[in-house]
Design brief:
It is a single chain. The protein is an alpha+beta fold. The chain has one domain: Fusion Protein Consisting Of Minor Coat Protein, Glycine Rich Linker, Tola, And A His Tag, Chain: A, Domain 2 (2-Layer Sandwich), CATH 3.30.1150. It has helices spanning 2-21, 38-49, 54-58, 88-100, and strands spanning 30-31, 34-35, 63-71, 77-84, 104-105, 107-109, 112-114, 116-124. A 3-stranded antiparallel sheet has the order 1-6-7, with no helix packed on it. Strands 4-3-8 form a 3-stranded antiparallel sheet, with helices on one face. The chain starts with a helix and ends in a 5-residue tail after the last strand.
């Protein structure tokens, strides 16, 4: 009986020790890149610099161009790609506008600067006014 009790205590102590060795990873904290001035500054820059291609106006071609890009650890944009195209002239205008957005704060993960992928839609529709 004494041996059985010692054996049970031995197994219980191993289980308790095994549970103490388990370390739960902490969730990492990620802060996405931010454009200086926020969304309002993005909209203002695009609105002030948009040159709607005459060919698109003439052909009545409208739509949304979606661009993907990376904001690097210095806050610069790189690796621009067209994720959703409307037409080459509108795609090129969206890329030109994106390149004007130069004031990015980089992403951080656990306090360390990281490259981060972003997407941004550019809506090309006629002015209703």
């Amino acid at each position: 009986m004494k041996q059985l009790l010692i054996l049970i205590l031995f197994f219980l102590s191993n289980i308790a020790i095994g549970q103490m060795d388990v370390v739960k990873p902490e969730k990492s904290v990620f802060q996405r890149p931010e454009y200086v001035g926020g969304d309002e500054a993005i909209i203002k820059t695009i609105k002030n610099n948009l040159k709607f291609p005459e060919s698109a106006v003439r052909d009545k071609v409208y739509g949304v161009v979606k661009l993907g890009f990376t904001v690097d650890t210095s806050g610069f944009i790189k690796d621009i790609e067209v994720l959703k195209s409307v037409r080459k002239d509108l795609d090129n205008e969206a890329i030109r506008l994106l390149k004007l957005l130069k004031n990015w704060l980089p992403a951080y993960e656990d306090g360390i600067k990281k490259d981060a992928k972003m997407t941004l839609p550019f809506r090309f529709y006629p002015n209703k006014s």
